[in-house]
Amino acid sequence: MRTGRTATRTATAVAAALALSLTAACSGDGGDDGGGASDKHTVKLPDLSGEKIQVAAVWTGPEEENFRKVLDEFESRTGAEVEFVPTGDNVATFLGSKIGGGAPPDVAMLPQVGVLRQFAEKKWLKPLPAAAKQQLNKNFSKGWQDLGAHDGTQYGVYFKAANKSLMWYNTAAYAAAGVGEAKTWDAYLKDLETISDSGVEPVSVGGADGWTLTDWFENIYLSQAGPEKYDQLAAHEIKWTDPSVKRALTTLGQLFGNDLLLSGGNEGALQTPFPESVTKTFADFDAPEAAVVFEADFVGVNVTNDTKAEIGEDVKVFPFPRVGAKEPVVTGGDVAVGLKDGKAAQAMLTFLASTDAAAVMAEQGGFISPNKELDRANYPNDVQREIAKALTDAGDDFRFDMSDQAPAAFGGTKGEGEWKALQDFLKNPDDVAGAQRALEASAAKAFEN
Fold first, then answer.
1. Residue 178 pLDDT > 50, yes or no?
2. How far apart are CA 15 and CA 63, in angstroms?
3. What is the pTM of this model?
4. What is the CATH number of the domain that holds 302?
5. pLDDT per residue over 258-280, tens digit each?
6. Which terminus in the chain has less CB density within 10 A, N or C?
7. Are residues 213 and 122 in the same domain?
8. Which DSSP helix (H) or strand (E) runs through 420?
């Protein structure tokens, strides 16, 4: 999900934090300072008594409340006064106006890597201080470090991540059909046919929100075409009329072209928004409208907030089935950047790069960290631990959401660009060539090449 995409997706999904009891203390932060931390800090923070700092992010509701616990921990340990500034969905516009007016927040969370690059080129970002880079080198793989850099300068720390390569399934529906967790795309399709024969419509697709369709395509394309091609397509170094795109759309069409495999058929999928795609699968266990829904780790929040299903019992997760040699790992995330120089901003970025801050947030649920040194015992349930493990175990083998790397006109605008072209493809999955032409025309215009 971006903001408007990741954040719109995440904000929708994170309507409530996972209401599950905590099972472990944090690994990194300090006992007397609160925040649910353990007895040992992993990073030293300066005395900032009397200083004020603003931190901006798109988050609202329970996600904001959980992040405020991180900010409270920072206040407790430094003596600084921290103000949380909500940006609204259009983060770039909000921050651009603040910067233009000479009053930017000290630190901001950016949900799009493209915005980081844009801000860096405009000289709006401050390079990470040495202490933050030390934490970054210690706690993050090179892939996550590279996402926070531009033209050789490190600007950002990826505090929050999303694992966008997950199948969430109704355990009762799967058991009734006698199917399991498919490892390959072909096995997945066969299982869906078996589920359909059992009397349950197999897959719930939230096609009314075009971003969900980009995630379907990206997982297939990454697994099938490989990371090098993925990077080239993400940067529009190859065209959407490339044979690799044809192959991926044809593969996706094996699902979208079989009306019996989609809950409500193709028309029903096009009319289903993302939150409803989750409730269709888990709200009614006596008569589910679907057996499985694909999307990121934030599905778990919708399950907990909007249904009575229990994650780990009624609801389980398996990785997106591999189409090629490897299971894909597609991610999204929010990167912390400095918009002001100063001791307080530098200390906040250093804190956010540490396991201390990640542990405070992880305890609350509804959060995945790309921090590889974070003890997974801090997550409140086994499902989240497995999701986090898949993300960090991927090392540098993951790829960031392709649509979140594109100009918004192509990858993040409702009713336009990639969203519209893939919705049209869902409506008419036989027209692979037409979808390619529409995607390329829109991409060429947005990338101006």
1. yes
2. 8
3. 0.80
4. 3.40.190.10
5. 999 999 999 999 999 999 999 99
6. C
7. no
8. helix 417-427
How much of the chain is helix, strand and coil, in % rounded to 5? 50, 15, 40
Helices (H), 110-236: 113-121, 130-139, 142-147, 171-177, 185-197, 210-225, 227-234
Residue 258 lies in domain: 166-319
Strands 203-204 and 330-338: unpaired
Element (DSSP H or E) covering residue 74: helix 61-78
Domain count, the chain: 2
Average pLDDT over residues 443-448: 95
As a whole number of angstroms, the distance between CA 331 and CA 136 comes to 18
Ramachandran area for residue 133 (φ above 0: left; ψ -120 to 50: alpha; else beta) = alpha
pLDDT band at 406; cut points 50, 70, 90: confident
Q: Cα separation of 409 and 419, whole Å?
A: 10
In this prediction, residue 284 carries a pLDDT of 92
Percent of the chain surpassing pLDDT 90? 78
Answer for the pair 322, 182: CB distance below 8 angstroms, yes or no.
Answer: no
